[in-house]
């Protein structure tokens, strides 16, 4: 069996029972990590975690902590549970939880705007802060924090005027925390997925014409899948990235650089 890149490390991941977060969590488990995942406190998410646990298999070091990530207490509870369950440390934190509902700018409701910002940006801030507080005080201090931003942090989107600023905010948060936390040996980096088939965009990409158009703009010729983010997330969490901090990695099949 190949060596595991995250053997013995403890990871927390927000929004991790579906999509990108789920794929990262399962790969972290395969790579030897203990994983605590956050999910929204509803029955559907609980069922999704049980399905995820089955896929992970018997003996997987995997726990779930339900909670609304927009509430500061949720990140704190996730960290505390991971520390209690897995031996007193948090080595890796992935801020992944997010929402995206396409809407027209001129008619967008304040409720939708506020919900998107409180989940995607405020939630990321509080979860990252909770993880960093633990990483800074543990012995020895240190860890890897990964913010799941988006290609949308770098480009515009007519139906995403409430969403793109939050993803730009996550990118900026990782840059600033890289500066603030380096003295504690905490590395902070961003992953910027392109068009990834998840539950967030299934409805939008149900239109075959739209899907073909998107695929045509991607040099690798296909839409991304959640597991495409898992490898880069393992790299940034591992000791192979020991001198990588404040970086941003596009995971988009080449879409951003294709101006044709």
TrEMBL record:
The keyword NADP applies. GO terms for biological process: fatty acid biosynthetic process; rhamnose catabolic process. Transmembrane segments: none annotated. InterPro entries: NAD(P)-bd_dom_sf (IPR036291), SDR_fam (IPR002347). Keywords: NADP, Oxidoreductase, Rhamnose metabolism. One of its GO terms (molecular function) is quinone binding. It holds the Pfam family adh_short_C2. Belongs to the short-chain dehydrogenases/reductases (SDR) family. This is L-rhamnose-1-dehydrogenase. The gene is DHG2.
């Amino acid at each position: 069996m190949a060596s595991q890149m995250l053997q013995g490390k403890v990871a927390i991941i927000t929004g991790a029972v579906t999509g990108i977060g789920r794929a990262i969590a399962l790969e972290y488990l395969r790579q030897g990590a203990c994983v605590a995942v956050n999910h929204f406190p509803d029955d559907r998410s609980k069922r999704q975690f049980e399905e995820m646990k089955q896929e992970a298999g018997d003996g997987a070091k995997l726990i779930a902590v339900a909670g609304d990530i927009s509430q500061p207490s949720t990140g704190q509870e996730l960290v505390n549970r991971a520390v209690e369950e897995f031996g007193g440390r948090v080595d890796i934190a992935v801020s992944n939880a997010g929402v995206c509902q396409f809407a027209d700018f001129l008619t967008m409701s304040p409720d939708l705007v506020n919900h998107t910002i409180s989940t995607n940006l405020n939630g990321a801030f509080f979860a990252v802060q909770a993880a960093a507080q633990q990483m800074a005080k543990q012995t020895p201090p240190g860890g890897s924090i990964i913010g799941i931003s988006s290609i949308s942090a770098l480009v515009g989107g007519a139906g995403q005027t409430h969403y793109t600023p939050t993803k730009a905010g996550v990118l900026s948060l990782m840059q600033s925390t890289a500066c603030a936390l380096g003295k504690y040996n905490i590395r902070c980096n961003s992953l910027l997925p392109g068009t990834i088939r998840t539950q967030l965009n299934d409805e939008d990409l149900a239109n075959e014409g739209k899907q073909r158009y998107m695929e045509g703009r991607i040099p690798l010729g296909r839409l991304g899948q959640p597991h495409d983010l898992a490898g880069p997330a393992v790299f940034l969490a591992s000791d192979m990235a020991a001198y990588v901090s404040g970086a941003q990695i596009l995971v988009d099949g080449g879409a951003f650089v294709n101006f044709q």
